[in-house]
Write a structure and sequence with these properties.
- The relative contact order is 0.22.
- It is built from 3 helices and 6 strands; from the N terminus they run βββααβββα.
- Helices cover about 15% and strands about 30% of the residues.
- It has a single domain (about 5-100), classed as NE0471 N-terminal domain-like (2-Layer Sandwich).
- It has helices spanning about 35-40, 45, 95-100; strands at about 5-15, 20-25, 30, 70-75, 80-85, 95.
- It is α+β, with helices and mostly antiparallel strands.
- The radius of gyration is 13 Å and the shape is globular.
- The structure holds zinc ion (ZN) (2 copies).
- Keywords: Iron, Metal-binding.
- This is DUF971 family protein.
Length: about 110
């Protein structure tokens, strides 16, 4: 992946429960907030250091069991965003690379139903 790959724009729609990213290479990603919350990359949510950077894209296609909203997003350096969730959690640093890897579109994730 190119080093310069980064989001050109990030848009949150709490009403629809999605976060959309337009990437610098023109790719478009749409994540369910529930799936993003469940894939929070922090140690706590991943259940230990050994599980860091293991994500589950199928979580973007499950029926949410919990209503999640994003209250704020802050860019961290030049490589990540921090998401502030309405449940008070904000430990997760979502790196561009991980977010792109998580992209649940048909092209990036052909195994989806
Ligand atoms: Zn977390
Ligand atoms: Zn994609």
């Amino acid at each position: 992946m190119s080093q310069d790959l980064h989001p050109a724009s990030i848009e949150v729609s709490n009403g629809e429960g999605i976060l959309e990213i337009d990437w610098s290479d023109g790719h478009h990603s749409e994540y369910s907030l529930f799936g993003l919350r469940k894939n929070c990359p922090c140690v706590l949510c991943r259940g230990g250091h050994g599980n860091m950077n293991t994500f589950d894209r199928s979580l973007f296609f499950v029926e949410p069991t919990q209503h999640v909203e994003i209250e704020d997003i802050k860019q961290v350096g030049n490589h990540a965003i921090k998401i502030f969730w309405n449940d008070g959690h904000s430990n997760g640093m979502y790196q561009w690379e991980s977010l792109r890897e998580l992209c649940p579109c048909k092209q990036c994730y052909p195994e989806q139903e």
